[in-house]
Specification:
Layout (H helix, E strand, L loop, with lengths): L3 H5 L2 E6 L3 E7 L8 E8 L14 H20 L4 E6 L1 H5 L3 H12 L3 E3 L2 H15 L5 E6 L4 E7 L2 E8 L3 H8 L3 H12 L12 E5 L1 H14 L9 E4 H12 L3 H7 L4 H4 L2 H15 L3 E4 L4 H9 L2 H4 L3 H13 L5 H9 L8 H12 L12 H10 L8 H15 L7 H6 L2 H21 L9 E6 L2 E6 L9 H13 L3 E6 L2
Parallel strand pairs: 1-4, 4-5, 6-9, 9-11, 13-14
Antiparallel strand pairs: 1-2, 2-3, 6-7, 7-8, 10-11, 12-13
């Protein structure tokens, strides 16, 4: 039975957009929040084919029905902290206030209409929540508007909201490429700071742009289906968006990999990205699953939580919820630190992460622990890692459970030989630490792992020397061999 205390920690946001209405419920206020409920209803509030300036009547009815359902679910889940945010469609419509009043009257939910600059700010915070030092330009394309934000090492410098939403462009201009291009040019020309993002990242937010990434994944047989933090060079993206922008609905349907609901507006979204890149000239495009909702969540966090590393916090959550002795991972990290000095900051971060979650496969079938743990990390939807680091961490944990963990398509395509060696080293040392201690807290601090003059030394205090045995010897020997060192066991003086 759900405790009142646990229920009271739940918080929710309802995002009322031009295309969809979405409810996300988070199970607590943490640095790495994980949704316990996520539901989207495609309503098309902003679809205005007759250019009336009003919300789509059919979309209004669908949205109200969805809000009734959401309100009922929120009460059942005992969620009291609920924010309802409406964006471009509602703020631009002449009957936007009427819609908000109706929702409140019928469901009890209060709708807050945010302006374009606030939407831009919250979306940028969504990027910063996953990458605290993000630099470049964030673009968030919705159905009704495009928000652009200049980021410099995690700080919001400039922002703008433009009426270049994918659904609006499709509705107003259809397939008239000349008028469409002129419209996009007219608005992008007003943003005189786009060139300041040259050579940095373009963070692509919004379902229409994520559809571009999904199409790429499907067509290129890319080995990771997770869109979040997929990075593509600007040259490849320029070519891909140019091709998509010229395709008909029939052509895109034949390609596959794209939601039918996005197909009509996908060429328009691709043209906007292509023309944006021509002005910005980014190093690469990073597709993000984060946006307004994650930014809203990040902003309500206490400052001390905001300062924590989101990846390590996610790993701590894994460990606490799924490991036998969840604090043992921190002991492993400290224990093996002396043999991994002077690592690059990012690799050290991944070493810590791997140590923290080094026991996540304990309750899997022994024959499948490596494979299951690898796949769990590789495909996890809420880890804020780029694809290289995601594969590296997954490979490390796979190697922790299988000393000769075999390559798959993702490992072969994304990791270098050096990456694989480092991942195996991390995996083997975690394996040794768990074997030596039985996964129990308090044992490893009574031993030491050291490097001295071409030797890998495992040192025991006299009172813990009984922990040494055949299996420990085997694990130590394999680790030493990977490091091209001699394995030595000794007692502390």
């Amino acid at each position: 039975m759900l405790t009142d205390q646990r229920a009271s920690n739940r918080i929710a946001i309802i995002d009322v957009g031009s295309n969809s209405v979405r409810l996300v419920i988070f199970d607590g206020m943490t640095r790495a929040p994980m949704p316990i409920f996520n539901e989207k209803v495609m309503c098309g509030l902003g679809r205005d084919p007759e250019n009336t300036g009003r919300l789509n009547p059919e979309g209004v009815e669908l949205a109200v029905v969805a809000m009734h359902r959401f309100a009922t679910l929120l009460r059942a889940m005992k969620v009291t902290h609920v924010d309802v945010l409406a964006t471009a469609a509602v703020r631009a419509a002449s009957d936007g206030k009427e819609f908000c009043d109706r929702v409140t009257s019928e469901t009890g939910l209060t709708v807050k209409v945010i302006d374009g600059l606030e939407e831009a700010r919250l979306s940028a915070l969504g990027i910063i929540s996953g990458d605290p030092l993000a630099s470049g330009i964030m673009g968030d394309i919705g159905g009704g508007s495009l928000e652009l934000v200049l980021l410099d090492k995690g700080e919001i410098k400039k922002r703008v909201s433009l009426p270049l939403g994918a659904m609006r462009l499709h509705t107003v201009f259809g397939s008239d490429r000349a008028r469409l291009t002129a419209e996009v040019n007219q608005h992008l020309d007003t943003v005189d700071w786009l060139a300041e993002g040259k050579g940095q990242q373009l963070y692509a937010v919004g379902g229409s742009w994520r559809s571009i990434a999904k199409l790429f994944i499907a067509q290129e047989n890319y080995p990771i289906s997770v869109v979040h933090n997929l990075a593509m060079p600007q040259s490849e993206m320029a070519e891909l968006t140019h091709i998509i922008s010229q395709q008909s609905r029939v052509s895109l349907e034949q390609i596959g990999g794209v939601s039918k609901r996005r197909i009509d507006s996908l060429p328009h979204a691709s043209l906007v990205m292509n023309m944006l890149m021509a002005r910005m000239k980014p190093k690469e495009v990073v597709f993000s699953g984060h946006g307004l909702r994650e930014g809203w969540m990040y902003e309500v966090l206490p400052e001390d939580l905001r300062q924590r590393d989101p990846v390590l916090e996610a790993c701590f959550s894994f460990a606490e919820n799924g490991e036998r002795f969840h604090q043992h991972g921190e002991e492993v990290a400290q224990w093996c630190a002396p043999i991994f000095s002077e690592l690059p900051a990012n690799i050290e971060r991944l070493r810590l992460a791997a140590c923290i979650i080094g026991d996540i496969g304990w309750n899997e079938h022994p024959d499948y622990r490596a494979e299951q743990s690898y796949n769990r990390i590789l495909r996890h939807p809420y880890i804020d890692l780029n694809h290289h680091d995601r594969v590296f961490l997954a490979y490390t944990i796979g190697s922790r459970y299988a000393g000769n963990f075999k390559d798959d398509a993702a490992i072969h395509r994304i990791l270098s030989d050096e990456d694989r060696l480092t991942g195996r080293l991390f995996g083997h040392v975690i394996r040794l630490g768990h074997t030596l201690s039985g996964g129990v807290e308090g044992i490893l601090p009574q031993t030491q792992l050291l490097l001295e003059e071409g030797k890998l030394i495992l040192q025991f205090e006299k009172k813990t020397s009984a922990l040494y045995g055949e299996v420990v010897e085997q694990r130590l020997s394999k680790l030493a061999k990977l490091m091209n060192r001699e394995s030595v066991v000794r007692l502390a003086e």
